[in-house]
Design goal:
Number of domains: 1
Number of strands: 0
Radius of gyration: 31 Å
Structural class: mainly alpha
Order of helices and strands: HHHHHHHH
Helix content: over 70%
Largest sheet: none
Strand content: under 5%
Distance between the termini: 10 Å
Shape: rod-shaped
Low-confidence stretches: none
């Protein structure tokens, strides 16, 4: 097996080696004398089928991870833009009311990190939701009770999308580990088999079996 092969190349080469070992009589009869019978080749075919299945599963899980990540990023970006706009409006309205500014978490800059940002946004909208008089002051800035409730729903949506993304990421990592393990086992089987093939070729004089398997 050549170095630096893609997964598809490894699978194709492994399939060809096993199928030729089954179908070519010279290879089959020669290798029977070195401990490789049809049962072992059929086991190798089963292993190849498992690798194909795990590769497909890994690709599917990776796609789900990417998709969930994109959905989370879009929702977070929308939430961030709206919240920044609402913060600016609230700072203007309550500019000379420091107690309210403090209670709404409007001091300092809005964090760009996920957890501090979410905590700041939750504080802001929960405080407005709990005290309608504050929202009444913000109505001229087009921040209404309905808008506040929509923003609370967006916060929940973003947290849920984050949870799903982390779950999909974990599932993808698990699937990748399973696939990699199966590929490693297959590569080891083929590498050992080809060593025995070369030994069998040198011992029996049937040197053609090596190139019949597409090897040098």
């Amino acid at each position: 097996m050549k170095k630096k092969q893609s997964e598809s190349e490894i699978l194709a080469e492994s399939m060809a080696i096993v199928e030729n070992s089954i179908n070519e009589e010279l290879i089959r009869t020669t290798m029977e004398g070195f401990g490789y019978d049809l049962a072992q080749f059929h086991e190798a075919q089963t292993q190849i089928a498992l690798v194909e299945s795990l590769q497909s599963e890994s690709q599917r899980r990776k796609g789900e991870q990417v998709g969930s990540g994109e959905a989370f990023k879009v929702a977070l970006a929308e939430l961030t833009e709206l919240h920044r706009r609402h913060r600016k409006a609230a700072k203007l309205v309550f500019e000379f009311q420091p107690e309210i500014v403090m209670s709404l978490g409007l001091t300092g800059k809005l964090s760009q990190s996920y957890l501090p940002f979410m905590a700041s946004a939750e504080l802001f909208y929960e405080r407005l939701s709990a005290e309608k008089s504050l929202v009444d002051s913000l109505v001229p800035m087009q921040i209404t009770v309905q808008i506040v409730e929509k923003m609370k729903a967006k916060l929940f949506q973003v947290k849920e999308l984050k949870r799903v993304h982390l779950q999909r990421q974990a599932e993808s990592e698990k699937a990748t580990l399973a696939k990699n393990s199966a590929f490693d086992s297959l590569k080891k089987w083929v590498a050992r088999y080809m060593k025995v093939v070369r030994l069998a070729a040198a011992t029996t004089g049937n040197t053609g079996i090596v190139w019949m398997l597409g090897q040098k």
